[in-house]
Design a protein that fits this description.
- The N and C termini lie far apart (42 Å).
- The strands form two sheets. Strands 1, 2, 3, 4, 5 and 6 form a six-stranded mixed β-sheet that branches.
- The chain folds into two domains: 113 residues, 3-Layer(aba) Sandwich (Rossmann fold); 183 residues, Rossmann fold (3-Layer(aba) Sandwich), CATH 3.40.50.
- The chain is 40% helix and 14% strand.
- It contains twelve helices and twelve strands.
- It has 364 residues and is an alpha/beta fold.
- It binds nicotinamide-adenine-dinucleotide.
- The site of nicotinamide-adenine-dinucleotide (NAD) has 27 residues, from helix 4 and helix 5.
């Protein structure tokens, strides 16, 4: 498949390929937009079936970061990195050293952080090679480090907003939630949902993650192939993307879909399919922005728990506006969110926010 005519290309500013056989690194960094500032977005490590699938993934994730950062009001553009992992290959210091050099070669046009398959320790190694990384420190009064708890907090409040809008209740007491994937974000989300009185139905392909969750909380476990179709009020996809598509949507029984996973819709048309079935969809990059809000403030050096919390707690108000606009215009929520994001990027770009100085790294 060509790159410029790739269906997901969508005017990316640049795409960079890196290979370092000695370190076992094969990676793609995609920079979708720097109109609002340097392109910020995490790094995913995954065993892709083909290079084409890795390219498709990084392009979709990168555009999603442009929209996510814009709607969250952050002075950053959108980019993303994927590391193509061979099956069963272990992570190594050399790998993240090499990835850090790759990020550094872009001279600050791209800022990296954790995503699926990457932890804080990996990002600390990257920090040894480049200052253009976040999601690694939590010191004293300053917030930062692992973004997952903040992502989970935003998703939790987003679920509250979606349940209020769709089911007309202002509490999660007795609400059933199916959580697909109980990894970094999923486990924090489950804790919050349980504390709020929700009943949990969970699935994960990783038995250890499931076991660890069930040692902490009461939850009904279902098979990964069944979780999307559970008879619940809310479906919270917290694993990988493309789970909402023409095959799955007709079988979904939940009235609300609101979760952390990026790129939940396989295509933009799937937003319409959900609307037509009366399912309220919380656009993924709006509800899951808690993590990037945390890493962005950490990067800018102005991160405190209180500040990050108050920014993350604005996610439900953004969702409520999107839900209301979608309802009044009888339009899918993803379409309304995309239009909002594009408007913010166009206005910011026109106002000359390119690589604004506020988005330069200030922490040591
Ligand atoms: P993670 O890798 O820690 O957790 C994902 C979990 O999903 C794993 O336990 C994995 O075994 C499980 N899983 C994979 N395929 C599955 C399937 N088919 N059925 C059930 N479970 C499956 O990742 P994470 O950091 O928790 O992120 C989860 C999702 O949220 C990803 O899509 C990520 O891009 C998105 N996200 C994460 C953050 C963050 O702060 N970590 C921020 C925004 C968005």
């Amino acid at each position: 498949m060509g790159v410029f005519d790739h269906p997901e290309f969508d005017h990316h500013e640049s795409i960079h390929y890196f290979e370092d056989p000695g370190a076992g690194l094969k990676a793609i960094i995609a920079i979708h937009s720097t109109a609002l500032g340097p392109a910020a977005g995490g790094c995913r490590r995954w065993n892709y079936v083909s290079d084409d699938l890795a390219l498709t993934d990084v392009l979709r994730l990168s555009r999603g970061m442009t929209y996510k950062n814009a709607v969250a009001g952050l002075p950053f553009g959108g980019g993303k990195a994927v590391i193509l992992a061979a099956e069963g290959a272990p992570k190594s210091r050399a790998l993240f050293d090499a990835f850090g050099r790759a990020v550094d070669s872009l001279q600050g046009r791209y800022i990296t952080a954790e995503d699926v398959g990457i932890g804080v320790d990996d990002m600390r190694v990257v920090r040894g090679r480049t200052p253009f990384v976040s999601g690694l420190v939590q010191t004293g009064a300053s917030a930062g480090g692992d973004p997952s708890p903040w992502t989970a907090l935003g998703v939790f409040h987003g679920i509250e907003a979606a349940v209020a809008a769709r089911l007309g209740v202002d509490s999660l007491e007795g609400i059933t939630v199916a959580v697909q994937g109980v990894g970094h974000v999923g486990v924090h989300l489950c804790r919050r949902l349980h504390a709020a009185g929700a009943r949990l139905v969970v699935a994960d392909v990783d038995r250890k993650s499931l076991q660890s969750l069930c040692e902490q909380l009461p939850a009904e476990i279902v098979a990964p192939r069944d979780i999307l179709f559970s008879d619940v009020d809310v479906l919270a996809p917290c694993a990988l993307g493309n789970v909402l598509n023409s095959e799955t949507i007709p079988r979904i029984r939940a009235k609300v879909v609101a979760g952390a996973a990026n790129n939940q819709l396989a295509s933009d048309n799937d937003g319409r399919r959900l609307t037509d079935r009366g399912i309220l969809y919380a656009p993924d990059y709006v509800i899951n922005a808690g993590g990037v809000i945390s890493v962005a403030h950490e990067y800018l050096g102005n991160s405190t728990e209180a500040r990050v919390r108050s920014e993350v707690c604005r996610i439900p108000e953004r969702l409520r506006r999107i839900f209301a606009d979608a309802e009044s215009g009888a339009r899918p929520t993803n379409v309304v969110a995309d239009e909002l994001a594009r408007r913010i990027v166009e206005q910011g770009g026109a106002a000359g926010h390119v690589n604004q100085p506020t988005a330069k790294r200030r922490i040591a």
